[in-house]
Amino acid sequence: MAQIQTLSKNQKIILDIIEKAKEPLKAYSILFNVQKKGIKAPLQVYRALEKLIKLGKIHKVESKNAFVACKSSNCEVSKATAFSICEICEKVTEIANNKLSNFLNSFEDKSGMKYKKYNLEFFGLCKKCKKT
Amino acid sequence: MAQIQTLSKNQKIILDIIEKAKEPLKAYSILFNVQKKGIKAPLQVYRALEKLIKLGKIHKVESKNAFVACKSSNCEVSKATAFSICEICEKVTEIANNKLSNFLNSFEDKSGMKYKKYNLEFFGLCKKCKKT
DNA sequence: TAACAAACGTTATATTATAACAATATGATA
DNA sequence: TATCATATTGTTATAATATAACGTTTGTTA
């Protein structure tokens, strides 16, 4: 709540819409939704999105060019994201799993590269769609 | 080599360019490169890319909207990809690491979802850029 | 209050990707 | 080989996603 005060007007409006959505939202669908609130141009949306991502409030689902609110930690800057995506109904869920995040956060290979950040997207069939 | 014969003319041309490139290529830069070979429209490129991805010959690096040749297995359909991406020089490397792939291929969470496929992108600083 | 950084609004444009349609080539098999 | 199904091609147009460049406003803090 303290942190949310530091968000600007546009940032609040856009975060609010994303938090209320049940699925990832695309930038232009956000734009459409906020036009009644005076946000008229794509750039205004993209700028807010960029800031919200930096703050860890939202994540981008890269394979879908869409944005979801972060549900795991409230005010932390997010460096690591994992999603599960159903290939039929397209439902996207953020995965909060310690075993997974511990493994990936401590992952090292022989390249000598130090990884600070990752994005993982799993694809498969969700419970519902598996039955069909 | 046997497999490559089943590729169509456009598919071969485009795979060839991607294989020779040292970094991931964007669709429109591929288009520019193949115009002398008679491929004139974006769709011709995107169609070939789509097929090559299905065959596992190339992968899409989602965070960069760019395409790289698969270096790990030669003729397998690829369901699982992992890349390391340097945040400074933007170098992209496909990660071939059994520990990682075993872990991810067998990953299950409580959602009841069965994962057939994943895409992982690590971000950090490569050896060279770390020194700077 | 002066000075700086962050956010804003606006127009224009760049970049990435697909729809829709007709024609042609290719491979399997009767 | 004739024929059928399928994949691929070529083409035009357009949709969808994202950023550049400019000047203004607001907020912070020295």
Defining key terms:
homodimer; 132 residues; alpha+beta; Arc Repressor Mutant, subunit A; Dna Ligase, domain 1; 2 domains; globular
Please specify the SSE layout and strand pairing.
Two copies of one chain form a homodimer.
Chain A: H1 2-5, H2 9-20, E1 25-26, H3 27-34, H4 42-54, E2 58-61, E3 66-69, E4 80-86, E5 92-94, H5 98-105, E6 114-125, H6 127-131
Parallel strand pairs in A: 4-6
Antiparallel strand pairs in A: 1-3, 2-3, 4-5
Helix pairs in contact in A: 2-4, 3-4
Chain A binds a DNA duplex (30 and 30 nucleotides) through residues 8-11, 26-28, 39-44, 46-48, 51, 65.
Can you walk me through this structure?
Two copies of one chain form a homodimer. By secondary structure, the first copy, chain A, is of the alpha+beta class. The first copy, chain A, has two domains: about 1-70, Winged helix-like DNA-binding domain superfamily/Winged helix DNA-binding domain (Arc Repressor Mutant, subunit A), CATH 1.10.10; about 80-130, 2-Layer Sandwich (Dna Ligase, domain 1), CATH 3.30.1490. In chain A, about 40% of the residues lie in helices and about 25% in strands. Chain A has six helices and six strands, in the order ααβααββββαβα. The first copy, chain A, has a three-stranded antiparallel sheet with strand order 1-3-2. A three-stranded mixed sheet of chain A has the order 5-4-6. In chain A, a hairpin with a 4-residue loop joins β2 and β3 (about 65-70). In chain A, α2 (about 10-20) packs across α4 (about 40-55) and α3 packs across α4. Chain A starts with a helix and ends with a helix. Chains A and B meet through α5 and β6 of A and α4 and β6 of B. β6 (about 115-125) of chain A pairs antiparallel with β6 (about 115-125) of chain B, so a sheet runs across the interface. The structure holds a DNA duplex (30 and 30 nucleotides).
